[in-house]
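Thread: Newbie trying to understand structure tokens

Hi all, I'm a second-year student working on a class project, and my supervisor (Dr. K.) asked me to get a predicted structure for one chain before our next meeting. I've only ever worked with sequences, so writing a 3D structure as a token string is new to me. If someone could post the tokens and maybe explain what I'm looking at, I'd be very grateful. Here's the chain:
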Amino acid sequence: MSPAPSQPLSKLVRYTVVVIASIGFLFDIYEILVGPLILQPALLELSNLRPGTSEYRDWAGILFWVPPLVGGFFGFCGGYLADRFGRRRVLTWSIIVYSIAAFAAGAATSLTALLVFRTAAFAGSCVEFVAAVAWLAEIFTEPKQREAIIGYTQAFSSLGGVLSAEIFYIANRYGPSFPAIAGGHSAWRYLLISGMIPALPLILIRPFLPESPQWEEKRKLGTLKRPSLSEIFTPRFRLTSIVTALMLACAYGCTFGALQQAPQIAAGIPEVLSMAPALRGQAVSGIQGTQELGGLAGRIAMAGLALVIVSRRKLLRIFLVPAVILMPLIYLFTASESLQIFRWTIAVAGFFTVAQLTFWGNYLPRVYPVHLRGTGEGFAVNVGGRMLGTSMAFVTTHLSAVMPGALPGAKLASAAAVVGTTAVALSLILTFFLPEPPEKLID
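---
Reply by user tm_fold:
Sure, no problem. This is what the structure looks like when written as tokens:
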């Protein structure tokens, strides 16, 4: 006798799922965006490395790239495991790993320890994102509702960036009144440890939420196929897998190679260099906060437009075409001149580039069946985006050594202009090869 079909979830459970997913997306980006804020003060405190030196560039590139590189590998594995063992179980363990690693990173006493724990925290957040998107898509199956839920919950990712900037501001201002960590009151340590804050409600509530109804019903009926990496490269999925991975590499390449360099660029603006250290930290956090507000507006715009524009290619181009024009202008002509001008132009850059990340959260669940959804998403987001795309941070920091400019910040801005513009232009070209997804999820 076949098992009975899964019962529909109550409204209370579905609303709880939305809230918890929103918090999950918030902490995913929170963990990523503390990196640019803690980079310079951590390098100075742990090894006395200063901007402009080759040693500083090497470690800056390593701390920007290695955590998402390794984290992306585990995120890809996590996507496979979510297809194999269920979305909820993988989500729960990813949050536990992240929480422990975030606390340990804040207490690190060497650059090696900081790198190890930052990498572990990244691994947890990379797994969480892929499993959460598949989980949401399979709970909310009505097309318009699914587009809206996934789109607007991902907007909380940018709130994670705003929150990280605000906490860094608070830590710089009130750090001396906080309990000492590793014998001091460094703002960057408080910021890393604060990454546990959004994880706490997830640890407490998510284990009690339901499994994906689609995945669970197929498992009970014995019709759930075993996930396979090779299957996403069969003729049915090959073009989708390759193009989405390359486009996510471009999206993350622009984000890590240009946007996330903004705090380091701002720290090199002459008026910021003349500030006291605490005020300098507040100014840098303000740059990132404004950038993320621009990204938040872009995510909301993308989520709204996704409900009315049918063609996914046209939807992406609305953001990519202006980005190709604006990226070089912002980084070459405003990034190293005035803190106030850079603050607002970087918000514009955030609007047109961060929106792309919300696009993929909506697109990817629609192009793979249940047994491949985590694997396919994991390949595109983690192998393409986090492993390949984030390498642009390493490229930017080292390219800056040969770029024009009198100060390290100006050189870094020029490098970011080259990397960011190239990534956006390539992504625009790739839209001509992007398959249009079916309206309904593939069983």
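A couple of things are worth pointing out once you decode it. Confidence is low (pLDDT under 50) at residues 1-5. DSSP finds 17 helices and no strands in the chain. Feel free to ask follow-ups in this thread.
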